[in-house]
Specification:
Number of domains: 1
Structural class: alpha/beta
CATH superfamily: SGNH hydrolase
Number of strands: 5
Distance between the termini: 88 Å
Order of helices and strands: HEHHEHHEHHEHEH
CATH class: Alpha Beta
Oligomer: single chain
CATH architecture: 3-Layer(aba) Sandwich
Shape: globular
CATH topology: Rossmann fold
Helix content: 40-55%
Number of helices: 9
Length: 214
């Protein structure tokens, strides 16, 4: 009877503690694509244009669309001069870039800085990038006509002179086909709109394409 009574007793289920499963650790895939550094001032930074609408942003899309496996890193700093650029060259060389698009000098000219200083700074930057193993594409610049023909002429000559000295690729003028065009320039007539940056990127791509590997 005791046995029967024992068998007839209902046993309350013992609650099992629920051990939370460990959270999945996200897999970080390292981007092994060779780096192209857009090294410049506000024209590279995309000043005044919508986020994601700088010329380096559009250049990345051009490269992707044309089957070139490169990663564009935007190192444009608004307001930067060649002196500022020279001070941060190491930030670019640390990335071990395959190519550096060097776009600086415009702010030097707008401030009326000595031509010799601008030329020397660009010279040193190009040399440093080449020592780091990077190809260099130098983007030429010009100035508003009211800066006087002599200063403008000397300023513009910096770029072909450095092209010849270092045997590098040069783009005649970064904003070629964009400057002074309605809808392509912002109200300040210095910085391109998003649509203008798209054209700049296409022009830059056409210049650097022969330097790249598919």
């Amino acid at each position: 009877m005791l046995f029967a009574a024992g068998c007839g007793t209902k046993t309350e289920p013992v609650p099992v503690e629920q051990v939370p499963m460990p959270a999945a650790v996200p897999v970080v895939v390292k981007d092994e694509r060779p780096v192209i550094v857009a090294f410049g001032d506000s024209l590279s930074a995309g000043f005044g244009a919508e986020t994601g609408s700088s010329y380096p942003d559009f250049l990345q899309r051009e490269l992707d669309g044309e089957g070139f496996a490169y990663r564009v890193v935007n190192q444009g700093v608004s307001g930067d001069t060649t002196s500022g650029g020279l001070a941060r060259v190491a930030q670019a060389t640390e990335l071990k870039p395959y190519l550096v698009i060097l776009e600086l000098g415009g702010n030097d000219g707008l401030r009326g800085l000595p031509i010799a200083v601008t030329s020397e700074n660009l010279d040193k930057m190009i040399a440093a990038f080449k020592v780091a193993g990077a190809k260099v594409m130098l983007a030429g610049m010009t100035l508003p006509r009211n800066y006087g023909p002599d200063y403008i002429r000397e300023f513009e000559q910096i770029y072909p002179m450095l092209e010849k000295k270092h045997k590098i690729t040069r783009m005649r003028f970064l904003l070629d086909g964009v400057v002074m065009k309605k809808g392509l320039m912002q109200q300040d007539q210095i910085h391109p709109t998003a649509e203008g940056n798209k054209i700049v990127a296409r022009n830059v791509f056409q210049v650097i394409a022969p330097l790249l590997r598919k």
